[in-house]
TrEMBL record:
Top class in the EC scheme: transferase
Regions crossing the membrane: 20-40, 46-64
Domain of life: Bacteria
UniProt GO molecular function: ATP binding; protein histidine kinase activity
Species this protein is from: Maribacter vaceletii
Keywords for the protein's UniProt record, in alphabetical order: ATP-binding, Kinase, Membrane, Nucleotide-binding, Phosphoprotein, Transferase, Transmembrane, Transmembrane helix
Catalytic activity: ATP + protein L-histidine = ADP + protein N-phospho-L-histidine
PANTHER family assigned to the protein according to its UniProt record, in alphabetical order: ETHYLENE RESPONSE SENSOR PROTEIN, TWO-COMPONENT SYSTEM SENSOR PROTEIN
Domain Histidine kinase/HSP90-like ATPase: 191-290
Protein name per the record: histidine kinase
Documented EC number(s): 2.7.13.3
Length: 297
């Protein structure tokens, strides 16, 4: 749509330039006819021929100018129509993101209500984990709805809000968890933002539940570095108790650990566990994903 408008503008500029050349040529022909007859005393018929040639060029320029006026009118109408359609599309997308966010929040509320009515602590924990996953997706749709850019979100802001929510949700408002975030001002599309957000959600949740135990002090760090093309490196982890090197996503029953690897595959990336640091730390390489219709997991 935007390219069509630019093409029309370029075409009008070319036509205007051609019109100017025609006007100059007609004036030059008429002037040359006068010079030929009055100055150089050339045959009257030759002078009249140059005069007629100049007049014809002038008439042609007039007709071209008339066509340009019609083209400009058509261009303005087309431009207004395209702008109106674009505005309608953006409004529709905003409404879609708003409704998706509301629906996800409704699901989250239902999970919360169901969790409170259960006496089984293990089931409560499972429902709380599912609720947090739903909220991590809801936040992305809310950010897309609130901002002018409907295709990408400012990821640093999103990670800060998600991390702070998870810490307060799991450890309470009064906690001893230090959060360190080092993310440049990057914007990611929804097809990358959602699986990456779920991955970060799982890593932080595992750190808060199993790494930084009870009310002990701890630190969670999250950093994203942009590499060449559309490749990124995420370093994320904690300084908690960690878990044995023999445990991995293939031999564990932990859904969170399995999701970390599954979501990394969706992002066309790779996971390396950094055992040189205390606690549980990952180095995750991933790519920015274009529009796709695949499920999140």
């Amino acid at each position: 749509m935007h390219n069509n408008i630019l093409d029309n503008k370029k075409q009008i500029k070319k036509t205007n330039l051609f019109l100017i050349v025609n006007y100059v040529s007609s004036l030059a022909a008429i002037l040359f006819a006068g010079v030929c007859y009055f100055v150089f005393k050339i045959n009257l018929l030759v002078a009249i021929a140059f005069l007629i040639f100049g007049i014809l060029i002038f008439i042609n320029s007039f007709l071209i100018k008339k066509n340009i006026a019609l083209s400009n009118s058509s261009f303005i109408y087309s431009n207004n129509t395209l702008s109106k359609k674009l505005l309608e599309k953006e409004t529709l997308l905003k409404e879609i993101h708003h409704r998706v966010k509301n629906n996800l929040q409704t699901v989250s509320s239902l999970l919360s209500m169901q969790s409170r009515n259960m006496e089984d602590k293990e089931l409560q924990t499972l429902l709380k984990g599912t609720q947090n996953r739903v909220i991590s997706m809801s936040m992305i749709h809310e950010m897309l709805y609130m901002r002018n850019d409907l295709s990408k979100i400012e990821y640093k802001t999103y990670v800060q809000e998600l991390s702070q929510y998870l810490i307060k949700s799991i450890k309470g408002i009064e906690n001893k968890v230090k959060l360190t975030i080092d993310i440049p001002d990057i914007k990611l599309g929804i097809d990358t933002a959602i699986p990456l957000g779920l991955l970060i959600n799982e890593t932080i949740t595992n750190a808060l539940k199993y790494g930084i135990v009870d009310d002990s002090e701890g630190e969670i760090h999250i950093a994203i570095k942009k590499e060449v093309n559309k490749e990124y490196v995420l370093t994320i982890g904690d300084n908690g108790v960690g878990f044995p090197e023999t445990v991995n996503h293939k031999n564990t029953k932990s859904l969170g650990l399995k999701l970390i690897y599954s979501l990394t595959r969706q992002l066309k990336g790779s996971v390396i566990r950094d055992i040189s640091k205390k606690g549980t730390n990952y180095i995750i390489k991933f790519q920015e994903i274009g529009h796709q219709l695949n499920p999140v997991v």
